[in-house]
Amino acid sequence: MKKLGLFIILFSLGVSIQAQNKKWTLRECVEHALENNISVKQSELDKELAEIEKSDAFGNFLPSLNGSASNSWNTGLTQNITTGVLENQTSRNSSYSVTLGVNIFQGLRNHRVYQRAKLSQLASDYGLSKMKDDISLFVANSYLQVLTNKANLEVLQSQNKVTQEQIQRTMDLVDAGVLPRGDLLEIQATDATEKQNIAVNENAVKISLLSLAQLLLIEDYENFDIEDEGYEIIDDGITAKNISEIIASAKENRSEIKIAETNLELAVKDFQISKSTYMPTLNAFINYNTRESDRASGIETIIDPNDPVTLSDTPIGVVGSSGESVFGYEPNILGLRELDALPFTEQLYLNDGVSYGFQLNVPIFNGFSTRNGVKRSKVNIKRQEFLLEQARLDLESTVYQAYVDAKGAYKSFEAAQKALESQELAYQYAKDRYDVGLTNAFDFSQSKVRYDNTKIEANRAKYDYIFKLKVLELYFGIPAAELKF
């Protein structure tokens, strides 16, 4: 058991160390951002709302079925429904009904509302796609910024090692009397400057990593790190394409244009919906209702059981031959009494009824609201047409700018590589001269600074070109998840 417990502890410790040493690749960062970014989640909620709106629109075609029930008490001077006499009483009444309604004609409104809901769902899909593209580029830019800072830090650390070696060698030569002490001080000053720059760049790396971790919503940003190897320039021929071909592909595939086109279709559909208010509407209904009360179901006469009949005081006729009055018998009524209320279910059965019919509504005049609503819809169509045209112009300008930026970044990258090669030769030449005492420490230090700055500029140009190249590929229609780095 002790060995098993020790094994579990060691295994857990190994997993923890492995998790802390995990380095995120660019693809992992993009995928994580698309799953967890708040803006993406909000766009996904918009998509869910569009699906609900579509379900609502479909429900307009279905009949409506509604039930109602009420139970009320009346207290005070009210008419007795049995005797018709006003009495101070408390009565209870309940009623129940079920109504089925069907829209027969609404000026094609339901059909157009359903079409609009489908367009709205399509617009939300395009919006989500655009949001994912924007987040992917944002993550890629932040990621490449970390790579740039790390590469610059590596350059400074590598060159400082050379400076440390030069300090030791210069110190030996100064002690031997070969070089003046001023050369040692110059090299030591260079070392101090380089260490200061290293500290600044270490801070830049931490800040860029923190920004990327916050973008990815990663809480353990202290242990967050990225994979900083294997990112080279991969051009699948996008820069060799004609700018008109890239612009045409962007207009066909980019979500910005599709969103603007869908918004125009929505405006047209809103115009059609507003026009349907000019049309009459026809509805059909059927209603079943019943009621129940706690009041008496009627009045019953009370007859004397001992003397059920009595001779009437009023004659019922006259004998024709003698003129004698004829009297009859009538019930011997002692009084009246109210009957108890009928059972609940029996009242529901006896008091039920059905009503059905049609309802036609014809708009005649409503204070210009219908006409003004149609006019507003027409204005909105024109607005969306302008926005669509503006979106096309903006996209064309943006793509052209991205194309020029990619071309310029490539030229800058080539120039930086050539400058690095030349500066590396110059630095090596200065180092060799310094090693044999043909140049002083100040000149060697200046050559080394120029070489360091050239390597840093080469790193910046490399990752800047990678990013701008991927932006151009994205505009050409390559999905963000399929971009190669």
Automatic annotation (TrEMBL):
Highest taxon listed in the record's lineage: Bacteria
Coarse class of the protein's main subcellular location: membrane
InterPro entries, alphabetized: OMP_efflux, TolC-like
Keywords: Cell outer membrane, Membrane, Transmembrane, Transmembrane beta strand, Transport
Pfam families named in the record: OEP
Cellular localisation: Cell outer membrane
Transmembrane segments annotated in the record for this chain: none
A GO term for molecular function: efflux transmembrane transporter activity
GO cellular component, one term: cell outer membrane
Family stated for the protein in its record: Belongs to the outer membrane factor (OMF) (TC 1.B.17) family.
Protein name: TolC family protein
Taxonomic source organism: Halomarinibacterium sedimenti
